[in-house]
Amino acid sequence: MKTISYRGQLDMGLQDQIRLKTNKGKVGYKITKFQVLSTLPGQGSGHEYIAQIYNKDQTGSIGGTVNFTDSELLAVVFQEFRNTAAGTGAGMNTTIIFDNAEFNQDIFISITDATGGTTPCNYYIELETMELSDIQSTQLTLKNLRTITS
User: Fold this and answer.
1) CATH for 2-149?
2) In sequence order, what are the beta bridge partners of 77?
């Protein structure tokens, strides 16, 4: 098994598409790491980043709501930072949750700041790759098609 990584930067409320699908869909992926970091770490009064990875385009519905019953949701990072200058006490708390799901199609990353901040945010994702059999490839592709049509 091989690990590949992706990194990028997003403005609040926008989405990036990571292109993973192949013509035959014979490569599968699993999320092994998902991290975020402000473009201005330690500056300002603070932030509450909510970064999410979906297996379906979220354009038009990007927001700060996290719904674990959403079958399209693959991973979530919540990062809260407070600076002592804001009078709330310094500290950072990060919560990372990801499904152990396998997929073979593109994924979509979005980031919002629950405090209404507009500072862009960096993301880093590591994916484990795996060879898929014809049956596994067909199952994952059909599952993705059902998700897209729903």
Assistant:
1) 2.60.120
2) 51, 96
Rounded to whole angstroms, the Cα distance separating 113 from 12 reads 7
Does the pLDDT value for residue 60 go beyond 60?
A: yes
Buried b (16+ CB within 10 A) or exposed e, 22-41: eeebebbbbbeebebebeee
What proportion of the chain, given as a percentage, has pLDDT over 70?
Answer: 89
* Whole-angstrom distance, CA of residue 143 vs CA of residue 43: 43
Domain ranges of the chain: 2-149
The reported pTM is 0.83
Q: Rounded to an integer, what distance in angstroms lies between the CA atom of residue 30 and that of residue 121? A: 23
The residues, any chain, with a CB within 8 Å of residue 116's CB and separated by 6 or more, are none
